[in-house]
Amino acid sequence: MVFFKAIISFLKDKQYRDLLITSLVILFIGTLVYRQLEGWSYLDSLYFSVITLTTVGYGDFSPQTSSGKIFTIFYIFIGLGMILSFLHTVFEHFNNERQGYKKPKE
Question: What is the model's pTM?
Answer without folding.
Answer: 0.73
